[in-house]
Design goal:
The protein has 3 helices and 2 strands; from the N terminus they run αββαα. By secondary structure, it is mainly alpha-helical. Strands 1-2 form a two-stranded antiparallel sheet. Strand 1 and strand 2 form a beta hairpin.
Length: 137
């Protein structure tokens, strides 16, 4: 049984290394396409801006603009004080910190109110000294 397990681990490590090589090859082949598409997006964006249009249709497809939003916190204390002090909780995405919840549960012997906590085992594989492939994840 130990020999079979060693064989499975060896294959796993080799497959992981092969996938890393394939991904690098893909990324190298994809880069010129991504760069060319980014340049085309710039040209199309300039045209849309110059014409004041939100979209432009052609027989080959339609170019259009969308707005992406980003909000980052530059002063955590000020933001938190404002949200709590003004009950503006819609400004926040609430998420429990799994490691903190685990520590709380171990020390308090109960979960924090309103939190569901789960854990699961994941199998990981580290290469042995006898293999040349380098890719421990």
């Amino acid at each position: 049984m130990a020999e079979k397990i060693a064989e499975i681990i060896g294959r796993y490590v080799k497959y992981r290394a092969a996938r890393k090589i394939l991904k690098a090859e893909y990324d190298a082949k994809d880069k010129p396409l991504k760069d060319a598409m980014a340049k085309m997006e710039g040209e199309l964006g300039a045209f849309l801006t110059a014409t004041g249009a939100d979209s432009i249709a052609s027989d080959n497809g339609t170019a259009y603009t969308t707005v992406k939003l980003s909000a980052t916190i530059k002063d955590m204390v000020a933001f938190k004080d404002y949200v709590i002090g003004n009950s503006c909780f819609s400004l926040v995405d609430w998420k429990a910190n799994a490691k903190a919840v685990e520590a709380f549960t171990k020390s308090q012997k109960c979960l924090p109110p309103g939190v569901k906590f789960t854990s699961f085992e994941k199998v990981n594989v580290r290469k042995g000294d006898g293999l040349d492939e380098s890719d421990d994840e």
